Request: fold
Amino acid sequence: MFHLSVPQMVCDEVARQGLGDWEKFLFGDRPGRVRTAEGYGIEGFRGLAAAAGADVLVMPSWFLDGRPAGAAVRGTLRAAHDDGATVVGLCLGAIPVADAGLLAGRMAVTHWQAFDLLAQRHPELALDESVLHLDHVDVLTSAGTASGLDACLHLVRSRLGSDAANRVARSLVIAPHRAGGQAQYIERRLLETTDRPIDTIAAACGIGSPVTLRQNFSAAFRTSPSQYRARFRAEAAGAE
Reply:
């Protein structure tokens, strides 16, 4: 439900503030009522045919088992794309977008836990764990879960400008732009669970120089070791 709510919240905020005449609707492979993973039902879903004529199609997530998208869903995404719609795959929603052939030969991103699955199924695409979203104008993908907010704000920014995106972000009480990619959220140990100095950690990892560690860490994760440690220290302390 979080994934489904993200594009709706952002779209609603655009309309509420009078920033754009954005309207939304829910669609699926079966019209009517849909049962969520959380165990309750949502009414009012339209069928796949309703996607025709949409300016933007958002796949907010996908099944946790990563099952291939069916022919009807793949065809709907391809047809919408061919008609000029921007197709968005948030989090695991990148899976059906890739299954539809819209990411062939392109860079893409999804939840880091699904990287191996997507890479094995679609070796023709390149996955980038260093970003929170990737925009090809006609196709947009995002990293895991909360990165959908970043992607939807980016969509607002690209269509309505930075001022509109900032106003939406302020209203939703989220950062207009987050630095770094989801690689910084993948498990790491010494920075999270110890108070060892950076130079000691550099030596323990076999890098040797703390300067080299900082440079490589920043290049890989778009954040510094100290910022990474500060972000996760509270969680590590709570786990203890």
About this structure: The chain is about 45% helix and 10% strand. Residues 81 and 87 are 6 Å apart (CA to CA).
